[in-house]
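Title: Request for sanity check on MARVEL domain-containing protein prediction

Description:
We are preparing a figure and want to confirm that the structure record we downloaded matches what your pipeline produces today. Could someone re-run it with the sequence below and paste the raw structure tokens into this thread? We only need the token string, no images.
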Amino acid sequence: MKSKFSSSLEMIPRQKSFACLSLKFGSILSGLIIILYSVFALAQCFVAFGMLPTELDPNDWNIIFAYSVVFVLTFTHAFTLFLTALMLAGVIRDKLKLIRPWIVWTSIQVSVSVIMFIFWSTMSVINHTNDSSLMLFIIEFLSLMVRFYMLMIVASFYKQLEEGFEETERLRGAKDFDQWYSA
């Protein structure tokens, strides 16, 4: 059976269950956790917008950079919130088309987070900065692993649904009773 999804989904390790619970429950729990995180992150972004200076000077690149970073983070979290709500609806209603955008977006986010973590770790080792503690590295690494595990759970549920629908279509095609005894 050839997958209708790109080969990148084939590279994500498959899970059979979420701890001792179903993949559907794990996908719903992952969606709820990410929605809660996105709401808190959006609130933090709005607070950051309020703390930035209101007068923009075109020559002050620090303020322009701060505005652009906060704007990109706000957009990212709002888009994540939207796609996660879409994914939750897809998981609850078993709709593959509603789950797929979340998998692609989260894969991109996890990949960018890994690259940023490696870059940040390397730069702090090269520059010998003492302000970055080991605890910060551990928290960042653990949050990255939790996000990847959530991606694995939802991707495994997606593949489980996809294989179930392929089996259903195969069985629907078996209604042609004339071909059953064509020997």
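Thanks, this matches our download. The first helix runs from residue 7 to 10.
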